[in-house]
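Example for tutorial group B:
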């Protein structure tokens, strides 16, 4: 029997394609439009007062968890729809994957002013602030889940696809009974990472100031921000303790049961002697009421949906998902319209950034180089420790039971709440703030790589592990022959999302406010933060577009080549 492929299935193409150029032009158009709308927002928007009393923490925690849940549901739906469309259609993939590549590299904190001020220009202030907060949390959760689901759909084993064809499963049943279950383990681990990423940027999403415009929402993020600004160590400790308590409860009530449930979708010939355990899941499985609800309501409803969608698929002409035929008239007209809009938006963006002086452009270039160096150092350190620990957690149920909750807690603590402490401690050292900036980038990037390595190690079939035992391979040979080839595609996916997280974290790592003082170090993140604080839209637009262009070039010339290598040499078929 063949074992599943692990390659992410990227198509062979030039490092920088016309699709990339079109996506960049569209992004420039969107940023220019957002900046234009932002100029129409009233000059002053009053923010809400945030109480640092302990009695306010339960309510703030409820608000934050609610925003996180709504953002996660939005991210999950987006990941399933977007990833499926990109995986099943070559024409859609040519546009959607470069677009996803760009979106995951856009710094959240540089995108926030555009989203927030644009919403406020057309919606009531309170609703706009809530909606912008959810959208910004969504941008910290969606990309790694989408990459994971796309990779799983593209690497579904061929024999399972052939079985689905033999049983004449339509698109819906193939998705529900084959592709979604096969993607479940990786999607669960990346969902856990998405929640951790959402906590990391919660402070930025709940309290934000652009010039004199103050947008503030009640929540744990705004509570920790206010406590940090007031140097109130008691409030910081209470806020972090509340967050840790929430993370532990979510692990016990949601993630452990979901992880144990996802074990049944692992493709292997031999069962594991140490299956994941969840007492809550065992309790739920023994629930008579749940059985009655499933048999009487949920089961018939699912069957009705299956019949309706399968019947619709049977009368709908099949779509050639892998063909490369010439685009139709509608597709050509759509591309022409998008190109025209992109060119117009680019012209408006160029007019906006034309106000920058030569000195500002020089500062932008040097800032990009400084941030690139810090990102490289952070990724090297991340790679050195996450691979062995991730393989240990993913391969051993005993170690996972102890280390998984610890990793979730550490990944969920907003480093932005603790970063001022690092700044104060390291300012006296040579290059103190630069070292602190690298540390904060680590806090924002290492978890993406760690969770993907765990997912890759956990997906190795048990029969292959037993084969290495029978061959009596040494630890070094086992790593060389099985572990590293198996996790390599997951490793590259994690490096892409970690790289995007590092560039995102640069905005808060290179420009820090503690009490009444502001600390910054040269970098594109500091330029974006300063431009945001002073409402300097030309610099904000130029810095964001320059950062996105650099990240896209790195992804195209480095990560895409490694993806191809994973597909050609480290695919297990």
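The residue assignment follows.
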């Amino acid at each position: 029997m063949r074992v599943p492929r692990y390659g992410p299935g990227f198509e062979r193409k030039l490092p920088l394609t016309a699709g990339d150029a079109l996506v960049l032009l569209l992004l420039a158009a969107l940023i220019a439009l957002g900046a234009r709308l932002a100029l129409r927002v009233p000059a002053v928007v009053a923010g809400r007062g945030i109480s640092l009393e302990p009695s306010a923490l339960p309510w703030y925690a409820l608000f934050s968890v609610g925003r996180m849940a709504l953002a996660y549901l939005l991210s999950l739906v987006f990941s399933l729809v977007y990833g499926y469309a990109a995986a099943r259609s070559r024409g859609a993939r040519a546009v959607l994957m470069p677009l996803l590549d760009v979106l995951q590299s856009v710094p959240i904190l540089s995108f926030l002013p555009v989203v927030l001020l644009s919403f406020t220009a057309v919606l009531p202030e309170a609703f706009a602030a809530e909606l912008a907060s959810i959208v910004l949390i969504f941008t910290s959760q969606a990309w790694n889940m989408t990459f994971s689901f796309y990779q799983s759909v593209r690497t579904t084993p061929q024999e399972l696809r052939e079985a689905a064809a033999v049983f004449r499963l339509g698109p819906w049943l193939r998705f529900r009974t084959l592709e979604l279950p096969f993607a479940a383990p990786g999607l669960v681990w990346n969902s856990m990472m998405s929640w951790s990423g959402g906590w990391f940027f919660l402070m930025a999403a709940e309290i934000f100031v652009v010039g004199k415009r103050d947008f503030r929402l009640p929540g744990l993020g705004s509570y920790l921000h206010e406590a940090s600004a007031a140097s109130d160590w008691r409030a910081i400790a209470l806020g972090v303790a509340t967050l840790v308590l929430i993370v532990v409860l979510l692990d016990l009530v949601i993630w452990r049961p979901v992880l144990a449930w996802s074990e049944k979708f692992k493709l292997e010939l031999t069962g594991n002697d140490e299956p994941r355990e969840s007492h809550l899941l065992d309790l739920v499985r023994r629930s008579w009421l749940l059985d009655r609800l499933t048999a009487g309501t949920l089961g018939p409803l699912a069957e009705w949906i299956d019949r309706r969608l399968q019947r619709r698929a049977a009368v709908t002409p099949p779509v050639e998902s892998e063909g490369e035929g010439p685009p139709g008239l509608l597709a050509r007209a759509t591309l022409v319209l998008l190109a025209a809009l992109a060119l117009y938006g680019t012209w408006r963006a160029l007019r906006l950034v034309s106000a920058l002086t030569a000195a500002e452009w020089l500062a932008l270039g040097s800032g990009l180089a400084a941030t690139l160096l810090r990102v490289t150092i952070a990724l090297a350190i991340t790679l050195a420790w996450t691979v062995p620990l991730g393989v240990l957690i993913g391969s051993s149920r005993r170690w996972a039971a102890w280390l998984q909750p610890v990793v979730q807690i550490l990944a969920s603590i907003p480093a932005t709440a603790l970063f001022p402490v690092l700044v104060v401690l390291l300012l006296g050292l040579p290059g103190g703030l630069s070292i602190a900036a690298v540390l904060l980038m680590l806090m924002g990037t290492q978890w993406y790589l760690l969770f993907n390595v765990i997912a890759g190690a956990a997906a190795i079939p048990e029969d292959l592990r037993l084969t290495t035992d029978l061959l009596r391979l040494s630890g070094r040979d086992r790593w060389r022959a099985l572990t590293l080839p198996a996790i390599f595609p997951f490793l590259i996916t994690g490096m892409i999302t970690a790289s995007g997280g590092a560039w995102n974290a640069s905005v808060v790592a290179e420009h820090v406010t503690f009490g009444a003082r502001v600390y910054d170090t040269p970098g594109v993140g500091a330029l974006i933060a300063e431009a945001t604080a002073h409402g300097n839209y030309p610099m904000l637009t130029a810095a964001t577009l320059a950062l996105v262009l650099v990240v896209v070039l790195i992804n195209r010339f480095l990560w895409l080549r490694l993806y191809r290598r994973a597909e050609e040499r480290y695919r297990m078929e």
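Residues 1-14, 41-47, 315-327 have pLDDT under 50 and may be disordered. Compare this with the pattern of hydrophobic and polar residues in the output above.
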